[in-house]
């Protein structure tokens, strides 16, 4: 039998919400309140908008954050249509205990997009969304206490080689304050395979002074994706 796979050309611009981030990354009040937060490859996620509304100092960066913000919103809306169709086709492969069903999953994406769009158009939001792409980001060393990367690294392991992943993770570490953390989820590719160079990557992290560990994630959905990578700088 042919292995099921979520087919994707290029990197999707997806809309995930604050609660999903909390579950993906095991976020606690102490993590969120420790200092400035950065969401890397944030796409159309409402995490930054919702975190700011809760009083946290959150920022987002993405290669698509250039030009007219309305185009970012339009791309995100298009992706909701496309991804929903893909999920319905692969429905039996996923764990729906968090999202319940494809209709509820889509409704969550639409709510996130609405919050994202509203924040983008606000005075506060204009300063919080920056253009930038790994492995080099436009921030000074030691700027953030918590750096998050959702559904980019490892997920696109078939499109980006080991050197890219290594340089990207080291760049995330560079952005952290001493004692800060990097958290990355998921650790599987779009083929739902474990990242094959994780040991080599963790060696590079250790050589740079980072302390890495695999932690339990609490967002059941992708088959077998129950861990996130935490790196303490």
Automatic annotation (TrEMBL):
Task: Give the Pfam families listed for this entry.
Answer: Methyltransf_11
**UniProt domain Methyltransferase type: residue ranges:** 127-182
Asked if the keyword Nucleotidyltransferase belongs to this entry, the reply reads no
Q: Does the keyword Zinc apply?
A: no
Q: Which domain of life is it from?
A: Bacteria
Which GO BP annotation is one of this protein's?
A: methylation
Q: Which residues form a coiled coil?
A: none
Q: Name one GO molecular function term.
A: S-adenosylmethionine-dependent methyltransferase activity
Q: Per its record, how is this protein called by name?
A: Methylase
InterPro entries recorded for this chain?
Methyltransf_11 (IPR013216), SAM-dependent_MTases_sf (IPR029063)
Q: Which UniProt keywords apply?
A: Methyltransferase, Transferase
